[in-house]
Amino acid sequence: MKRIATLVCMMMVAFSGLKAQEIVLERFDAVPGKSHFITATQPFSMLISLDNVSSCTGVSFELRFNNAGSIYFDGWTAVGAFPSDGIVIIDESNRVSGQGKITVGALSLQGTNGITFDDPVVVQLNFVVNTTAQHNTNTVFSFVNSEAVVAQPEGTIVNLFGQPQLFNVHGYVDVWPGDANNDGIVNNKDISQIGLFFDDGDPNGRIRGFKRSPMSTNWAPQSALAWDSVRVTYTDCDGSGRVDINDLLVVWANMSKTHTSIKRSDEVSSPVSPTQDAEPVVGTIQIPVVVNTEYNGIGVSGRIDWSASAENYKVVGVSKGSIFAGAPGFFSKPGGEGSNYIDVALGYFYPSPDVLINGEIMVLSVEPLNGGDGSDFAYAFKNQKGIHSSGGIFDLVTSVLPEKLAGVHVYPTPAEHMLTVENERLDISQVVLVDALGREVLRADISVGNFELNVETLTRGGYTLLMKGKKIEAAVPVVLK
């Protein structure tokens, strides 16, 4: 009995050291964390290799898969041990039945007495998912009749074990613009969702996004290709392929609207609730952001960039201007550490009527770093967008353009009687002074040299001096005391 027990133990030890000879399938095109799904319209590749197989001179197998009606074989690439003239691949997939079958044979063409390979890479198989692939279905790839030719000890054929691989299909989903968390209603939770996934959608970022076509913001189901993270697909309210400040405009345009087509399995919610302080910061310099346009809408968004003044000033807050003083919608998001910009969106909620976007849209609270009075503060208002009450987003082309102009100096500010414009540029031909409501109060033609503007009779307060030319337009804030 002791001998039998000892023999059994020896056999168990021996078998525990054995490892199956395997054929392995792995994604070749995906980064870690994104290899478990495939996406409609997008190609993907499979790398076939062997594991625990020594002295190999050939491999043959069938790769079977379902959903062959929407997943197509798209060729192969010789990337491993076997020469291209030694590889034979036949696509026997049946599109009607949906059963896929790829027959593969790969030989070294050396025989069992020639060059052999240990754990060789066999081949790269390429596929593409067409536009009709049904969202949230699963495709399973599995090996059938897998064999390897090995040269040792005397040349033989061994069976290979292959583990099936499952991939989830990302197809097209219906997005209701503004319902960023897909819970059936547009409300404050959708603002939280945008804050959670802000800046996602970069093709090279953590979550790849896709533009909708057309990029409609109408309150109706819009077909959208599911992103790498499906739930972020709904957060792209304007269909631009990126979660940004403009998506908030769509939330406000469709605020309180509901729909009943939600799929409960796709519903998400976020505990993130960004708080917004829309009041001016006490003890700081107030710089109005004034635009002059002929557009009507219920909201605007854009990026305020003060890089040109970053050495002397810091923006510590932003509040609503006179145009949007009563607007309930306000959101601001500062850039990352070391940046000198802030993304801002503000506006009225549906069903508010459109207002003329002309005048003071917001006010910056600016903190001087070197004792300045704000007269030399310059900012850029970039990526300006507006939105109509109908939900349509448009480029907000304004007369306030970004860069501080070299060769132009405006002083003194605060000014009391006269405002001097010192101009060394040939491309500036006119200056226009506008008040906080965007109304023109003074205009003058200028050329190179010093020019004085009489501001003695004007109401005291904040103004914007627009400097114009054929190919340039810039703004300088001024204060009258």
Structure explained in plain terms:
- The chain is mostly beta strands.
- The chain has four domains: 20-162, Immunoglobulin-like (Sandwich), CATH 2.60.40.680; 171-273, no CATH class; 285-395, Immunoglobulin-like (Sandwich); 408-480, Immunoglobulin-like, CATH 2.60.40.
- The chain contains four helices and 31 strands.
- Strands 2, 4, 6, 7, 9, 10 and 12 form a seven-stranded mixed β-sheet that branches.
- The protein is elongated, with a radius of gyration of 33 Å.
Features:
single chain, 481 residues, mainly beta, Immunoglobulin-like, 4 domains, seven-stranded mixed β-sheet, five-stranded mixed β-sheet, 4 helices, 31 strands
Structural class per helix/strand content? Answer: mainly beta
What does the overall shape look like?
elongated
Q: Approximately how much helix is present in the residues?
A: under 10%
Quote the beta fraction: 35-45%
Task: Calculate the terminal CA-CA distance, rounded to whole Å.
Answer: 109 Å
Topology:
Elements: H1 2-16, E1 22-27, E2 37-39, E3 43-51, E4 56-65, E5 71-77, E6 87-91, E7 100-107, E8 121-129, E9 138-150, E10 156-159, E11 161-162, E12 165-170, E13 172-175, H2 188-196, E14 222-225, H3 230-233, H4 246-253, E15 285-291, E16 296-297, E17 299-305, E18 313-320, E19 329-334, E20 341-347, E21 355-356, E22 359-368, E23 380-387, E24 393-395, E25 408-411, E26 418-423, E27 430-434, E28 440-445, E29 449-454, E30 461-468, E31 473-480
Parallel strand pairs: 1-11, 2-12
Antiparallel strand pairs: 1-3, 3-8, 4-7, 4-9, 5-8, 6-7, 9-10, 9-12, 13-14, 15-22, 16-21, 17-20, 17-23, 18-22, 19-20, 23-24, 25-26, 26-29, 27-28, 27-30, 30-31
